[in-house]
What does this fold into?
Amino acid sequence: MLKLKKYTTLALSLIGFSAFAQNSAPLFDGKTLKGWKQVVGKATYTASNGMIIGTTVKDSPNSYLVTEKEYSDFVLEFDVKIDGADNNSGVQTRSHVDPSGDGGKGKVYGRQVEIDPSERAWSAGIYDEGRRLWLYPLSLHPEAKSLFKKDTFNHYKVECIGQETKTWLNGKPVAYVIDTLDQSGFIGLQVHGIGNNSNLEGKKVYFKNINIRTQNLKPTSFENGIFQVNYTPNTLSAYEKANGYKLLFDGQSSKGWKGAYKKGFPEKGWLVENGTMSVQPSDGGESTNGGDIVTEDQFAAFDLSFDFRLTEGANSGVKYFVTLSEGNKGSAIGLEFQVLDDEKHPDAKLGKNGNRTLSSLYDLIKGKKDGNNTRKIGEWNTGRVVVYPDNRVEHYLNGIKTLEYMRGSEAFRALVAGSKYKDWKGFGEADKGHILLQDHGNRVSFRSIKIKPVSR
It folds into this structure.
């Protein structure tokens, strides 16, 4: 029976591969660059031995060899190998070029499937080149970081159907994004810029077996339990529903929310319109207008995500394990994911070692950020807080983990003892609590607030 099962599985795999081969068309003829053109950068691209070979050059921006034809829905498969652990590449999907971008040098923008041999190991993650930066870093799916094999060819599959983009690496699922931008565009092969780094000059990226299927497409199922990024505001995908998520904000009303220490939703200070729930500006004080709002429900271990948009100089926060048992004045007490304009609000320079900056565990632990996970004021950001049943907690900003800690540990209690929360007994250690959106007197908007329980 075991042999029969093995051979049956192999037969089905071969049938699937044969079906793809029969319905697909090569994007590369194996001999020439016919059907391709270089749009940006100075890296060289050659066709040799059945491969497209891209070679780095110094003092060039990112370079792109792109298809002359644009594609909307497709399944793309290719094999890729890259020199060294410090080199980088990617494949653009549904992308475009702005000839006037980058001071007239041209700029490619659109979703890119990452090729990353570095220790970071985010291969097959999804990056928005020239625009929003990371959409799906592999900090969202760390189990997939081991899939990329160095110094050999790796097989990629990319499925773009409707608003969904899914990736597989060496036969395993990696990234799943639902996005409202770019329903068609070119496919492009990137050679990453190396600046003036002589050690990376002449490094190569090898592409082969580049095939695309555009007819008779059916979405491939993704196994449950992998985090999905959904950029459709205030909606749950079928995949999210199947994985236990629910919306905390329906995009139309304050249903499910009330004022902290109040029976109902605040009569002033908060505005629900155009799919957002926004704190209205007042005097910049803490809970002096409409006051904080909290979920009617309470939560224990959970995976919470939320979009937020800051105005210049704004301050707010998303708190969790809020019990409302303290009866205090001002903002209700709880662990806080800091929401802040780090450049313009003075709170960023207070506290200790930056522990009041964006994505920090407010007044306790600094959230680590770089240019890959911060977006401009006025643009939407995504925050995420994951609380595990063992009391481990993680903060994410735009998909990238910024900190983690253990509630109730000796290290945690030592931090609390040196913070503004030192006088609150058992701070942050409740078994369950409300989720809170803070009124700090500045206009900040929220949307796409969703949560699922996390079990062992």
The CA atoms of residues 318 and 437 lie 5 Å apart.
